[in-house]
Design a protein that fits this description.
The protein is of the alpha/beta class and 354 residues long. The protein has eleven helices and twelve strands. The protein has a six-stranded parallel β-sheet, with helices on both faces. Strands 7-6-8-9-10-12 form a six-stranded mixed β-sheet, with helices on both faces. Helix 3 (100-112) packs parallel to helix 4 (129-137). Residues 30-50 are annotated as: Disordered. Residues 60-318 form the Periplasmic binding protein domain.
């Protein structure tokens, strides 16, 4: 659940094949991550198919925002870990930055080095569209990660999560549970990331659409800016405004740390909560069952591992071994899955540390 700028169409290829790694697409978005976090290494699946046998040596450039967010930190670690698995890959990562101009300059340096492929998670898809197009025009295939460029000529392949699908998954879980409990006119609260972002709007639309199938709707929603501090403040305000709540969907597990802190401080236990992204701390809370958090829906940073694999295949002129087509698809959308106490153990190795 990255604070992305331009979401893609929701349809795409769901991968489970050898070329991308079956474990990569099953799970996990956001906050600060410690350097000793072992999870991203576990998220990178081991090579296993004919496409993974050493081939032509390729140089893969990589650029992403600064790792000041757990999800972004996991993106960078997963990309580096996967690149190390291949003896035919020379991985060149430029300095991460949240400054648009600095990222443009970094990408230009990779273009000047004539890398074989470029994996790029832009700070802003619109503002980096031109430099991505420059790479493509120079014959360097761009694997656009998560935040999509508005011009399709600016990338060879896009891979990212399903924001609308996150909302659908959360709404379906909440709707089913409330319906099974015969809850009439439930008070359903939604805590967004940043309300103005298209990704947030897609998540909210998916949530509303799913709830509507059960005859429910969102009672109140407020954005919390993807931070722990804002999560605490927003949750406190919503708890004060609603003396009775039946369910909460919090878009982001990192800000969810603050949300849960506010809930604990208020001593409220009459509702259940669903998170978003699939962070390791959220999954552990779900396993323990000692908070109101019952589930989280995934938006996995393992997409970075898949992006490296795709960049390697594209640079070597290969397709995906589980597909009939000779070339890597142009668009790949990961599934958003629901993590509960019953399957938490399976997803925990793919969780990222907040």
């Amino acid at each position: 659940m990255s604070p992305a700028i331009e979401p893609p169409a929701r349809r795409g290829f769901l991968l489970g094949g050898v070329a991308v790694g079956a474990g990569l697409l099953a799970a996990a978005c956001t906050s600060n991550s410690s350097d000793d976090d072992p999870k991203p290494a576990a998220a990178a699946a081991a090579p296993g198919g004919d496409n993974d046998k050493p081939g032509t040596k390729v140089v893969i450039g990589f650029s992403a925002p600064a790792a000041d967010h757990g999800w972004i930190a996991a993106i960078a670690k997963n990309a580096a870990a996967t690149a190390k698995q291949y003896s035919d890959v020379d991985f060149k990562s430029v300095e991460p930055t949240n400054d648009i101009n600095q990222q443009i300059s970094a990408v230009e340096s990779l273009i000047q080095q004539k890398v074989g492929a470029l994996v790029l998670l832009p700070n802003d898809g619109g503002q980096l569209n031109q430099v991505a197009r420059k790479a493509m025009d120079a014959g360097i295939p761009v694997i656009n990660l998560d935040r999509i460029f508005p011009d399709k000529l600016s990338y060879r392949t896009w891979i990212g999560g399903d924001n609308y699908g996150m909302g659908v998954a959360a709404g379906t879980y909440i709707g089913k549970k409330l319906k099974a409990a015969n809850t009439a006119n439930p008070v359903i609260v939604e805590i967004q990331g940043i309300a103005t972002l298209p990704l947030t709007q897609d998540r909210s639309k998916g949530f509303a659409d799913a709830l509507k199938t059960f005859g429910f709707s969102v009672t109140a929603k407020q954005d919390a800016a993807f931070t722990v501090e804002s999560g605490t403040k927003v949750a406190s305000n919503l708890l004060q405004a609603h003396k009775k709540i039946d369910a909460i969907w919090n878009h982001d597990d990192d800000q969810g740390i603050g949300v849960l802190a506010a809930i604990k401080e208020a001593g409220r236990k009459e509702f259940f909560m669903v998170g978003g992204a699939g962070s390791a701390n959220a999954i552990r809370d779900i396993q323990k069952g000692d908070t109101v958090l019952e589930a989280t829906v995934t938006y996995s940073p393992t997409m970075a591992s898949s992006a490296i694999k795709l960049a390697r295949l594209v640079a070597q002129g290969k397709g995906m071994s589980d597909l009939v087509e000779q070339q890597v698809p142009q668009s790949i959308t990961l599934a958003s899955e629901t993590i509960t106490k019953e399957n938490a153990e399976k997803y925990l190795p793919l969780g990222f540390e907040s």
